């Protein structure tokens, strides 16, 4: 892994540039607004989107936006899928305004009684319906039998569907280590297995897990304090060869410790 790979953390949106500098980091990831709501992007940064873009460029800090958790473009329920697509476009547009390197979105799911193939095809339709002004990064998720991006087999099917859509060259992949571990994807080979499917890994969410392998539980913890083998965690990050975001607790102090932990081992 090259020394130039950027590391950073998921931080508050009020001032992600200063947050990166405080952590000695080259990037920041954040929410633009409420992650649990259907309301569109909100700018907490004092200078607004243009000011944030200028500050990030001046400081050489890369910005990544995490989409709201409620976005589920795979859903067969119109009352979920249609607002999800609308939100997806709004956050893509917002990302373009601030010069973000990507928008991270979860794979979503269909309901228990639904046909998984419909959810997969809904991903294709969502890509075709969205003007991807910045990269959209699909993130693997930890749980759910009907999840679109938990297992390698399901990720491969979604990726094939996306690949047949116009605009698919703007779709990338975000590998979350906690989600892979909890979702039953062995971390020792996760990066290679994902790349064999997608041809790329654009971002890594490096998180330890509070739960056992294949537990389906999405509970992050600080690096070296969870149930993921530290060597496998670092190996997965190294094999991915992509920018890294830690999404761990403890604020500045906790994240600083995690970044130091990771830097020392890389």
Q: Order of helices and strands, N to C?
A: EHEHEHEHEHEHHEEEHEH
Read across the widest sheet, the strand sequence of neighbours is 1-2-3-4-5-6-7-10
Can you tell me the CATH class? Alpha Beta
Structural class: alpha/beta
Low-confidence stretches: none
Q: Count of helices?
A: 9
Strand content: 5-15%
* CATH homologous superfamily annotation: Divalent-metal-dependent TIM barrel enzymes
Q: Based on the structure given, which CATH architecture is correct?
A: Alpha-Beta Barrel
**Overall residue-averaged pLDDT value:** 96
Tertiary shape? globular
Rg, rounded, reads 17 Å
Number of strands: 10
Q: Give the proportion of residues in helices.
A: 40-55%
Largest sheet: 8 strands, parallel, barrel
State the main characteristics:
10 strands, two-stranded antiparallel sheet, globular, TIM Barrel, single chain, alpha/beta, 266 residues, 8-stranded parallel barrel
Task: Characterise the protein shown here.
The longest helix has 21 residues, at 78-98. Helix 4 (116-129) packs across helix 5, helix 5 runs parallel beside helix 7 and helix 7 (187-198) runs parallel beside helix 8 (230-240). The strands form two sheets. The protein has an eight-stranded parallel barrel with strand order 1-2-3-4-5-6-7-10, surrounded by five helices. It contains nine helices and ten strands. The chain is an alpha/beta fold and 266 residues long. The mean pLDDT is 96. Helices cover 42% and strands 14% of the residues. The protein has a single domain, classed as Alpha-Beta Barrel (TIM Barrel), CATH 3.20.20.150. Helix 2 (48-59) links the parallel strand 2 and strand 3. The chain starts with 6 loop residues before the first strand and ends with a helix. The protein is globular, with a radius of gyration of 17 Å. The protein has helices spanning 16-22, 48-59, 78-98, 116-129, 152-163, 177-183, 187-198, 230-240, 251-265, and strands at 7-10, 27-30, 62-66, 102-106, 136-139, 171-176, 203-205, 208-209, 220-221, 244-246.
């Amino acid at each position: 892994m090259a020394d130039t790979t950027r590391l950073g953390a998921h931080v508050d949106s009020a001032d992600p540039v200063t947050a990166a500098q405080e952590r000695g980091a080259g990037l920041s990831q954040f929410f633009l607004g409420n992650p649990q709501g259907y309301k569109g992007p909100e700018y907490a940064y004092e200078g607004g989107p243009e000011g944030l873009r200028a500050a990030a460029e001046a400081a050489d800090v890369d910005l990544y936006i995490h989409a709201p958790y409620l976005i589920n473009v795979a859903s067969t329920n119109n009352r979920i899928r249609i607002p999800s697509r609308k939100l997806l476009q709004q956050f893509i547009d917002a990302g373009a305004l601030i010069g973000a390197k990507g928008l991270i979105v979860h794979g979503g799911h269909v309901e228990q009684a639904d046909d998984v193939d419909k959810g997969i095809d809904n991903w294709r339709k969502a890509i075709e319906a969205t003007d991807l002004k910045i990269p959209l990064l699909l993130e693997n998720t930890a749980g759910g039998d009907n999840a679109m991006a938990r297992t390698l087999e399901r990720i491969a099917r979604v990726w094939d569907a996306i690949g047949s859509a116009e605009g698919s060259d703007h779709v990338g992949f975000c590998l979350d280590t906690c989600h892979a571990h909890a979702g039953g994807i062995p971390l020792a080979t996760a990066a290679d297995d994902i790349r064999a499917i997608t041809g790329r890994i654009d971002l890594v969410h490096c998180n330890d897990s509070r739960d056992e392998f294949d537990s389906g539980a999405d509970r992050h913890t600080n690096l070296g304090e969870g149930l993921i083998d530290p060597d496998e965690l670092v190996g997965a990050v190294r094999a991915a060869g992509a920018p890294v975001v830690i999404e761990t607790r403890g604020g500045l102090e906790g994240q600083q410790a995690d970044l130091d932990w990771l830097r020392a081992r890389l």
